[in-house]
Amino acid sequence: MSRRVVSCMLSLMMVVACAVAAVPGAQAATDEQTLSVDESTAVVSDTSGYHFKATITNNGDTPWSEGNLALYLNAMYTFTSRTDMQEWAQEENAIPATDELGSAHVPAIAAGQSATVTIDAPADNAALKRISSWGPKPLLAAYTHDDETVHLRSFLTRSRDGLDNAATPAMQITMVMPLASSHWQANNETLDSLVKGKTATRNQNEQTDERDDNAVTLDADHTRLDRTFSDTLSKHSQLQTVADPTYLNALAVPPQVTAVMQPAAFDITAYAAGGDAQSYTDAGLAATAWNSDAALAQYRKALGDDKATTATIAWQGEGRWTSKALAEARRQGYTTVISTYDFESSDTGTVHTGTNVVSTEAGDVTVLVEQRELSNLAKGKATDEHAQAESTEAGRLARFVAQSAFYQMEQPYTQRNLLVCFDTNANAITIDRFMSAVEASSWLEITDLNTLAATTPYATGEQAQANIPQETGLSDKQTKAVADALSTLSAARASIIRFRDSIISNDDKQSDDAQALARQDANKTSEYPRDAWIEQMLNVHDTLALHAMAGNDADGAIASAMLAGANHLSSTLLNGIALTPSETVTMLSETASMPVTVSNGTPYPVEVCVSSISDSPEIATSRRTTVTVPAHAEAQVTFSLRAATSGKATATITLEDHDGNQFGQPQKTTINCVLKISDMTGFAIVAIAVAFGLLGLWRQFHRKKDPDE
């Protein structure tokens, strides 16, 4: 049988396989038979050829015999609609793919094992040469073994290079990377040092507010921008970066960025949805901590340049950009916001420029809306769970390129600028692959954020108002998480204020550490050094609170770490005033004394009330006594004990502030009472006993005797 006949038979088999997807021996990749794309040429030109690498995994219970992997293409096909493309990706239509790109032998695969196969088609491959028009083409990978065929559908996109097709204007596209981190941690060592007034970990020449940053740090693996990531940013100069300025400040060497977002990626959408600004203020989150002025101040601090300037753009949080959220962003100085999803309705209309200009009660806001399908692919999300090839990054990239080409072909002479956003956690390899593919796509023109914002908006006025989401988009679980976090932060901050107002002594004497701290805090405009110390703790708390309300914290990891840090700070402060456990007290008389020691681990004197109460009515203690405890020292108070009888009791000793409210950990002391004859009562009892004894003797000698005696 000739090779030509064999080729024709194989082509016919592939046509049948595409037309009847459900027949035995022609099935999609499943849990037991997996075919996934590892690498593929994103943009094919007249000189590139085509490279394809796949992994075949046997998740079944039986081994597979040797097989074959073949790649097929429909070189002449042109997709007519986005529905047409989606149905191909989901194996819901029958498009014949009969142009063979190449094949490769697949070794036998044992159960639970995998094999990697590569197919390379040179630039002069017959199937590639047959392509006469640019754009996306159906690509089919077919793996045959043991009389069964597993197939996977993807896309091959041909550029205009080397084709006679008429050139049309390139479609503009703006690629944006948010630079923020989800690896924030609360530094308990710094928090403890602050409470104790220790300064050993701090350079004498550092500015006071730098201690705020030391309390909230990136974990050890993220304090420096990854070298590969840095190289990627340098390599793709047209990539737009919108950075959290606190993240820049935490990096050893901050990169150049296009703009900055709200500090700590503060969730403005959740703030507006709650409608309770006071709860945020109570938690230490006044608007001055996250508005555009704060963003610019943090940016200047990161660069060490008080005159540096850049654009400020509010990034979307967990909720949607409702009218209230947009108005709040505008009120806080953000005239431009980026909407990462759910701003416009999901319809089947042609793609358009991602710019809306919305009028709010605080002024106009330019909303830059990402293109949903392209952005989802760049963020690692498949267009549909049934699009099997898009389960890997290579498959998603192939779809991204194909989809963008189709969008340009859909309206080749309409000016549009599409916004594509990467995920916050996108790695350098992902960014490099997508940016390289966009740069190689002749139908795309990369622009910057300024160009996008200045492009004729897609919607203004009433049309823009109609695009605004009506619902916040926050689930009940998310809303509760925000409320719980604010409650925790408010309680922690209130504890610090309580310490300031009701525990710390008015006596401004301080330890050597506190004096050093005061000298370093000389720029604080406080009447007393202790006020600067308290102010510093409040600032640290507020920094923790700011990060706790980040809008890029889908799994709640940042909030959990920051709330734990805030609780640690407040509890360490209050527990810095502690009762030293007392030994058991033994009473040998009606009265005794019980000494209690109070320690102060803070750098300033405190004045507290020590309260004691017994659980026995027969053994009582005096109730309260006030004591001033010097900085980093101890003081002792004495309680009077009085017993009416022998027995055992437990005295509970607690600390109270100036308002009589308890704080800290209570202590319990056992009191054993063994009364002895050692006081006036004892003597009286003895005297009476002696008198009765003498009376008995007198009667014994003076009574009238019986005659028989």
UniProtKB/TrEMBL annotation:
The chain crosses the membrane at residues 680-698. InterPro entries: DUF6049. Keywords: Membrane, Signal, Transmembrane, Transmembrane helix. Residues 1-28 form the signal peptide. It holds the Pfam family DUF6049. It comes from the Bacteria. This is Secreted protein.
